[in-house]
Amino acid sequence: MIKFISASFFCIFSHTALAANLSNEETMKLNFASDFDLRHTQINNDTVMGGLSSSRVSINNDAVNFTGLVSLDNNGGFASTQFNVINKIHTATRCKLLVKGDGKRYQLRLKTAALQFGEAFIAEFTTLEGEISEHIFTVDDFRIGFRGRTIQNGPALDFAKVEKVGILIADKQQGSFSIDLHTIAFEK
Q: Signal sequence span per UniProt (predicted)?
């Protein structure tokens, strides 16, 4: 189901409708509305490698809530979710994230067709416990990473070519976690 915030534009993540609000042609703001379908959201936890972490995605007060438990048992230690991006802003020079967190550190992960083996463009941010915080990133804030390692000499990030947006928690942060994703904006 698609909820229109602006009649001129909408964006879909992984067959999950996210309303987009264009205040002008240089900004795409993805608002996580309360009536969209999460069935096709991708969850990728350390269970793919034998770990025991778990996570889920749900709707919480017009935000996407990503919550779960990170376990270090069986050499585990991460949980992630991602959405497909259909529409893009070709002039975007920064990405703005509005989240309500739990005081833990997360990764914003962007994927493009230039990354073919599971790598991601990664920018880290720390949330404020129980508070909404804004995090602004330029392409220079991202590094290419794969399975916990930084990849050197990779392709450059172009926000206009982002196909997937994800959130990951790792770095031996054992225990429960919860983050509400309110908006993601790609702006000039």
A: 1-19
